[in-house]
Description:
The protein is 70% helix and 2% strand. It is mainly α.
Amino acid sequence: xxxxxxxxxxxxxxxxxxxxxxxxxxxxxxxxxxxxxxxxxxxxxxxxxxxxxxxxxxxxxxxxxxxxxxxxxxxxxxxxxxxxxxxxxxxxxxxxxxxxxxxxxxxxxxxxxxxxxxxxxxxxxxxxxxxxxxxxxxxxxxxxxxxxxxxxxxxxxxxxxxxxxxxxxxxxxxxxxxxxxx
Length: 182
């Protein structure tokens, strides 16, 4: 009886130690995963509001390592269909004040050409990897930019007097570092 009790106690200690080791290993894996995602999360921490900040991002995206981090960040956004994917990705990339300054092909008075940017190429690659057709992607992006005026009006109603229209639409250089991590 004594041997069986001591044997039982030893087995219990062994199992407890094994569970503690397993828990420690799982926690280490979670921490490693979080650390590997930290860099990804700060390429575009919040939607970019100004053209100068977007140009700073474009400069950063010339670096292949930054471009891969950018791609990884936006690959995680999902939608049920192509327009849902485009909407999620583009809303995380551009705030309405910036989106209203672009069109897909730069057509219009004083509009920038999004299709000529590195960010556009990366977004298209992400969507192609999800088996969407190239022409549909281009058309969906063009439609997203066509509706940017509606989103800007809604944005200004929400953000309006608090932030001020001039500040929201201003292309000031300050805070570029806050938007794009170098």
